[in-house]
Specification:
Elements lengths: L1 H8 L4 E2 H13 L7 H12 L3 E3 L3 H14 L3 H13 L3 E3 L8 E2 L2 E4 L4
Helix pairs in contact: 2-3, 4-5
């Protein structure tokens, strides 16, 4: 699984935007929402160690440039911007265009 490799090998990066979206889904969109205690435990053990790019003026500037270049929604552009800022070679996403290149960043749908 991608998350296991990311955490155990220390190679993965999660943007704060992805963390926010993940929390929203876990708390509000599941048939049986996760408890806040269980969510906090998962965040501390798995997600927080992977958040290496935090919101900043530069991140917003890169996101705006990404939005202009790609026409992605702004929140998706924030995720792309965080990936670009972190220097990772691959962004895994089921919502963006599979195999699209943005600079040196390649988007991959892990479910295909």
């Amino acid at each position: 699984m991608l998350m296991d490799g990311a955490v155990h090998e220390g190679r993965g990066v999660i943007s704060s935007q992805v963390c926010q979206e993940f929390c929203n889904v876990m708390l509000h969109k599941l048939a049986v929402p996760i408890s806040t205690r269980d969510l906090e435990a998962y965040l501390e053990s798995t997600v927080y160690p992977l958040i290496r790019v935090l919101p900043s003026p530069r991140l917003f500037a890169v996101a705006l440039a990404t939005h202009q270049q790609t026409q992605y929604r702004f929140y998706d552009s924030l995720i792309v911007a965080a990936a670009l800022e972190s220097g990772v070679p691959i962004l895994y996403s089921e919502d963006l265009q599979h195999e699209r290149l943005i600079g040196d960043l390649r988007i991959v749908n892990p479910f295909l």
